[in-house]
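Entry 14. Ran structure prediction on the chain below.
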Amino acid sequence: MQANGNGNGQIVDYHDVQPAVINPMDASPAIFRAGLDRRKENRGTLIDWIRSSLVEGRDYGSIMIKGNRSKPSLLKPGAEKIAGMLGLIPRFPNLKQYEDAVLDGKTITTIILKCELHNQIGEVIGEGVGARSVETQDNGDLNKSLKMAAKSAMIDSMLRTAGISEIFTQDIEEMPPVERTQPIPEQPRTNTQNDELASEKQHAAVRGLIENDLVYPSEKRQIHEFIEEGLTKVKAKELLDFFYGVSILVDGVWTKTSMGKLEERRNNS
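Output, C-alpha cells:
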C-alpha cells in the first residue's frame, strides 16, 4: 500500500483516491454505478414533476392527424417552467449578430439562433438550435422570425439537456406540413384594445379547434403559435369566426351571416 502525508500529519492511502476522469466510462465501477443510480432517480423525479405540473394546451400540446393524436409537443411556457425548476437561464450568443445586421441595413432571409442554457454561475449546461425562414414562414416579418427561432432554439436546448425527447417533440413545426388551404388570415393591430388577453371561454373554444379533424395540421400549428404568443380576445374572435362563421343577434335570435370553414368542409366531404 502506497501512503504519504498530506501536510497535516495525516496518512493518505492513494489507492482510495479516485483520480479525475474525463470519460465517465473510465471511472471506477462503484463510482460509475452510483452516478447512474443518482441520475436515474433524479430523472425519474423530473419526469414525475413534468407530468404532474405541466398543463396540456398551455405548456404542451398535440394535434389530431387523420384520426390519430400526434406526439405531444413542448411549447415555450412549458420549456420555461422546466428551465426555472432546474435553475437554468437561456442565453442566445449569436442574436447580436442579427441585430447588428439589421442596423447595417442588410437583408436577412433565414435566421439560425443558438440557445445556451447557463447555470447560476454562468456555466453552459446545454445548448440547442432553432431556424426560421423570414419570407416563407413569416411573410417577411423579421421580428416574428427572430422570436420564433429563439423559441425553437430554447425548446431544443431543453429537450437535449433534460433528456425528455421521449416525451415531447421539439415543437409543432416538426409535424409534417399539410398545406391544403390558405393560412389563417391575420388582421393588423390597430389599438391597444387588441392586446387584451382572451377569456378562458375563448381559450377553451380555440383549443377545441386543435381537436377537430376538419382543421388541417398546418392550421393547427398556427393556432398553437397564437396560443403560445399570448392569445388575445381579438385574435380568438378572428379564429372562431374563421372556422365557425359569423352570427348576429336579430330580434333576440342568433342568425348566421357567413359560413365558417368547418361547415364548408363538412358539406364538401
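The first helix runs from residue 29 to 53. Will compare against last week's run tomorrow.
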